Amino acid sequence: MTLAPDRPVAVPVSPCARPRRVVIGFALAVGLLGLSVAASLLVGTREIAPGTVWNALFSPDRTLTDHTVILDLRVPRTAVGLLAGLALGLAGALMQGVTRNPIADPGLLGVNAGASLFVVAGIAWFGVTSSLGYVWFAFAGAAVAATIVYLIGSLGREGATPVKLALAGTALTAAFTSLITIVLLADTEAFDRYRFWAAGSLVARGLDAALPLAPFILVGLVLAIVAARMLNALALGDDLARGLGQNLITARIVCAVAIVLLCGSATAMAGPIVFVGLAVPHVARWITGPDYRLIIAFSALFGPTLLVLADVLGRLIAQPGEIEAGLVVAFLGAPVLIALVRRVKLAGL
């Protein structure tokens, strides 16, 4: 009797593998977030010992210069990074889910450009100078841009396909960027105020800029959690989602409101930062699989971690100066975008 040649045997994946991976990933995500916060408080042009940082946080003495640096400079910029990163990470996850587009991002679909255009209008024509003033213009601009992109992308027989949405977002971004340039060239004072904000910086953003916008981000977070189960249904396609009893209009409205709140708040707070919303959901999806309840949770951790670490890296690579966090994220995000365009399949969403 002859024996059949050896063949590779398929080893079934343990049903516990995914939960174990999620638990380990969650622990690592929380640990990375904590390390990023610690690094943001410790690293800067002024060297401050860890013990001094601890004392500044828990027994501050305003007569000490090091304590003042920690409390007035590093704590506020860390808070802004956490809030803006949270908002952008969640917004990216929601946009990729609701459009079923693997390269959806507030920057790539024109939402940031719309918010920026309206903020420029507020600066140039209404003399707005505060983050709380910016946010209302940012909300309006984000909503207008999202509506225009969706309407243009919906034209034609196939409806709002990922490719059409991406093309519409790119075209709208180009148009809005041109309008921004026209407004700024006509108003040098507005240009001086805008250029620093537009770089996507966490510098010179105090708690007075972050705390008034925190409630909007909190509402966006709650809506994102509510939308997670809806996105799981939408990922199956419109027909199957309807068959499961999902109201598509309600789902998209909830996601749209959350995206506008999150993108508008982040843009008003830290400027038009791109690629955070693109990369973060894919990292989360690699750990969690396609369940948007977990993707939303992990995006809420990875978003602030990425932005705060980008800010820390910007302080280190250009001493004694620093590079804005938005520029560092853009530099890191470009290879991610190229890799996604080449490798990610829509079915993977």
From TrEMBL:
It is a multi-pass membrane protein. Pfam families: FecCD. SUPFAM superfamilies: ABC transporter involved in vitamin B12 uptake, BtuC. InterPro entries: ABC_BtuC-like, ABC_transptr_permease_BtuC. One of its GO terms (biological process) is siderophore-iron import into cell. PANTHER family: FE(3+) DICITRATE TRANSPORT SYSTEM PERMEASE PROTEIN FECC-RELATED (PTHR30472:SF1), FERRIC ENTEROBACTIN TRANSPORT SYSTEM PERMEASE PROTEIN (PTHR30472). This is Iron ABC transporter permease. It comes from Cryobacterium flavum.
